[in-house]
Amino acid sequence: MRKVVHIDDCIKTFEGDGIPVTRAFPVPKMRENDPFLLFDHFGPINYEPGGATGVPAHPHCGFEAITYLLGGEVEHKDSWGGQAAIETGDIQWMTTGSGLVHSELVTDKFKKKMVGVMQGLQIWVNLPQKKKKIKPWYQHIKKNDIPIIDEGNDVLIKVLVGKVKNISSAVQTYSPVSIFDVQFTKPGLIDLDISKNQTVMVYVIEGELKFHDDNQIARKGQMIYFDHSADMINLTSISINGSYLVLAGEPLNESIVRYGPFVTNTEVEMKQAMLDYQNGKMGSLN
């Protein structure tokens, strides 16, 4: 069984129109956790009618981004024609590749609600160097189309990305990653097979996990980082209800240059990406 290396509190910050964000990384002591570049839990935030806006048009390049919406409604639009209304429980996967401009604004329907609660998870996954310049594209998976594994012991696994227990998500990725939400409706435990070659971490969306080797407890809003000593992890939930997001991915072991929303492998490529954006090569939103 893999051992826990450390359990970290995430930092608190703000994005967009003042949306509170719980961020695991990038932070000063951890820029990324290869192949993952960013992990944010945005919200929950309660909006009065007409109060929510979202994130206006901005560029990206060089990575793939997933949004797992836990509450609210967001409309995605991008300069390559991608468009979808993301509702509670849905996921979106955006391959930014050579570059795009996109916006994530709340829907009119959500704005008109008496009280609207917005929250979700956003994760960035690095693209391999040979795929950094691929054509951008967009995938939207509705809540009811996400595969769910019923373990039969009050444990459900929502397979958001990748493959778990021989069940695969519909999302197509360029990096070998798996992202899944393990949900408990009473205290219990589960063992999960994950190759020791892969980076593994678990974020506590709701509930508490106990690790018996050293009696550590991970609580809501914390990220757990595992070593590479075995091909299995154990999750023991000690809460009445628990929701734990597992992220597993094979490290790319490539150089990374970051500047705001752009990710490249070299400084020269970063300068070119900035020029591409300034010259309109990433497109625009009307």
Poorly predicted ranges: none
What is the CATH H-level superfamily?
Jelly Rolls
* Shape, per Cα inertia axes: globular
| Strand order in the largest sheet | 1-22-19-24-17-14-13
- At CATH level 2, the architecture is Sandwich
The count of strands amounts to 26
CATH topology: Jelly Rolls
* Helix run count: 2
The CATH class designation is: Mainly Beta
How much of the sequence lies in strands comes to over 45%
The major beta sheet can be summarized as: 7 strands, antiparallel
* Rg from Cα: 19 Å
Return the domain count.
Answer: 1
Structural class: mainly beta
Kindly report how far apart the N and C termini lie: 52 Å
Helix content: under 10%
Query: Topology as H/E string?
Result: EEEEEEEEEEHEEEEEEEEEEEEEEEEH
> Mean pLDDT, nearest integer?
93
Care to describe what's here?
The chain has helices at 108-111, 267-278, and strands spanning 4-9, 11-15, 19-25, 36-47, 54-60, 63-71, 73-78, 83-87, 91-95, 100-106, 116-126, 137-141, 148-150, 155-161, 163-164, 167-168, 177-184, 188-193, 199-206, 208-211, 216-219, 222-226, 232-237, 242-249, 257-259, 262-264. With 286 residues, the protein is mainly beta. The chain has a single domain (4-278), classed as Jelly Rolls, CATH 2.60.120. The strands form seven sheets. The chain has a seven-stranded antiparallel β-sheet, with no helix packed on it. Strand 7 (73-78) and strand 8 (83-87) form a beta hairpin. 37% of the residues are buried. The model has no long low-confidence stretch (mean pLDDT 93).
